[in-house]
Amino acid sequence: MTETYEAWVGREEDSTERILASVVQAMSATLDLERAPQAGEPLPPGWQWLFFNPVARRSALGTDGHPRRGGFLPPIELPRRMWAGSRIRYLAALPVEAQATRRSRILKIENKTGKRGSLCFVTVQHTISCDGKPCICEEQDIVYREATPPGAQPPAPQRYDGVPQWSRRIEPDTTLLFRYSALTFNGHRIHYDQPYAQTQEGYPDLVVHGPLIATLLQQFALEQGAGRRLTHFDFRGVTPLFVGRPFQLEGRPADDGTLALWARGPDGELAMSATAAFE
Fold this sequence. Notes:
Mean pLDDT: 93
Number of domains: 2
Strand order of the largest sheet: 1-3-4-5-2-7-10-9-8-6
CATH superfamily of the largest domain: Hotdog Thioesterase
Helix content: 10-25%
Shape: globular
Structural class: alpha+beta
Low-confidence stretches: none
Number of strands: 10
Distance between the termini: 42 Å
Radius of gyration: 18 Å
Oligomer: single chain
Order of helices and strands: EHEEEEEHHHEEEE
C-alpha cells in the first residue's frame, strides 16, 4: 500500500484565511469562557484548528460525513479514519483578525498491523504563517483502519495509574459536541449521529472530538504554566471518550521541566496523553 501512494508523499497545499474574531468569540462561548480574545490579541493554543478546514459540498461527502477520499490526502481504502495525535510548536503569536496562510505537506505514509487489523498512518505537516513569519508548525498523524465487525465488543478499559497534581472535571454534553463540530465544519457523523456511531462504527455513544480534548488540555496546561508562553504541545489519542460521561483533565510537573498531562475517562482509563513545554 505504501508504494501505491508514494506519489502523495511530498504533496503540498496552500490556503489563506482570516482569523475571524466572530469565530473566536463563538469558541469562547462554546468553552463557557468569560472573555473572548479580541482583535490583535494572540489566538489561544489549539484554536488554530477552527480555521483552514476543508469546505466540501454535501454531495461530495462520504457515508461517514468526511469529504470523499482523494484530493490532497491519498485515497486510502480503509474505511475508518481519525486524528491520532500531533506534535505542535508555537513559534510566534497568531493575532485574532490577522490574515494567515497555511502550507500543508504530506511527510510520510506508513502501513502497520494492529490488534484489530490493518492500519495506515499519514503524517501531514501544517505551517501557519502571518506576514511571512511562521507562527505554528504542527505534524499531524491521521490513521486509517478497518471497520469494526458488527457486534464486536470493545476491549475492557484498563485503569491508568498516573498520579495527578492537578485535576479538572469536564462534562461533555451534546451541545458542546454540536457546537465544536459546527465551528470546525466537521461532518464526521460519530460526533452527532448516535445511530450511525453505534451501528456503523461500533461506538457505545457519540464520540468527543480528539482535538477538542487536546484544546482543553492546552488550556489546562496554561493555567498551570505560571504565565509562561506555551512553546510545544504533543498529544496522542489512546481511548475515545463519549458524550454524557464526565472525564478528568489531569497533570503534574515532569522531571525535565515540562508538564505531563492526560485525560482520564470515567472508568479510570487513559483517553489522551500529552506533554507541554513553556518558555
